[in-house]
Amino acid sequence: MRFLILIFLLSFSFLGNAETIKIGLFHHLNVHSATVTVNSGNYDIFSNDELIGSVTNGDKLIVTHQSGAILLNSLKLKNTSSSKLELIAKDADCELLITPKGKSIKRKISGHLNFWNRGKKMSIVNTQDLDVYISGVVEAEAGSRQNAEYYKVQAVICRTYALANKFKHAKNGFHLCDEVHCQVYKGISESNPDIISSTRATSDVVVVDQDVNLITTAFHSNCGGHTINSEDVWSEAVPYLKAVPDTFCYAMPHSIWNKRIKKTQWMGFFQNHGINFDLDSLSTFDNSKRRVKYNNQLHLKEVRSEFDLRSTLFSAHIENDEIEIDGRGFGHGVGLCQEGAMKMSTLGYDYIEILHFYFSDIHVVPLSNFHLFREN
Ligand SMILES: [Zn+2]
Ligand SMILES: [Zn+2]
């Protein structure tokens, strides 16, 4: 059984042996025109698979999707109309800046860039080194102010997610999009050199469960002192997403919160769910214990969603005509608590110990070990 699972994992590796990934840029934004500037390096340009020339530092291309064709405009190359336009990076230091027209965003990317006509849409796909992509995701998820060990934790989580979800956009012709739908990617990492070195230091390392399947790497900002079982937030019980007590995230930026809600609003919400709320029962809410439902009737995640609460871990009491909520933590509480992990990394725990603390019965292993297993 385990052998079969390993073969399954192996048979879908990225583009042969090259560790590359295809990222769909601006996928949900419906971009129809973009300016591409070469920041460094040389690129060969192919229009419908035909080489039409090269561009280098400072050259600009304007790419527009119009009437089902990809139009190229540039001072250096002949203008073309095609169904496929490719910028193929020739050097290791190749870097492009891509700016969609009419949007206040831009991306600095390395690797190749493709534009494809897909009927009503234009696909913009960046093919690049997996670890360059991972370091960009780590920067988007964790910011620029963490220590190197924490960046290793985040790199392993983001890599595991990327590999486990690489078919999410198969029908779109790429692996992952650059938005929250997959993992946020805002281009190459530049803000802190530790991000890139930590990603490289953990290159190839992923988290697998007891059956050697890549795990669902759930994480959240701060658990408030207790993580929560996956089945208590989502429908499915997952052996490695089990509740654990966590004191590391106390006294971190998102460890406590407070909110006031009008009593009438509160009562009305419960009424809408067929519950005649007893105000005396407010004292049963307790932010030192994880609890899933109110009176076994209403899931607290619904209360969280209705009142835009940071978490489902809170105490409550009456304050005049309002209900005052004192909460702990930020996020759904399943899997790894980021602020707890950050604290652990400052206390000297290494990334493997941190992953084992938050995920039960897992293995932190290089993916290439699976190849060795297969060869045997
Ligand atoms: Zn996506
Ligand atoms: Zn925590």
Task: Indicate the topology.
Elements: H1 2-10, E1 20-24, E2 33-40, E3 43-47, E4 50-55, E5 60-66, E6 69-73, E7 80-82, E8 84-89, E9 95-100, E10 107-109, E11 112-118, E12 121-129, H2 130-142, H3 148-164, E13 176-177, H4 193-201, E14 205-208, E15 219-220, E16 256-262, H5 263-272, E17 293-294, E18 298-299, H6 300-307, E19 314-319, E20 322-328, E21 336-337, H7 338-346, H8 351-358, E22 363-366, H9 368-375
Parallel strand pairs: 1-13, 15-21
Antiparallel strand pairs: 1-12, 2-5, 2-9, 3-4, 3-8, 5-6, 6-7, 8-11, 9-10, 11-12, 14-22, 16-20, 17-18, 19-20
The structure holds zinc ion (ZN) (2 copies).
One zinc ion (ZN) binds at residues 222-223, 246, 249, 337, 340.
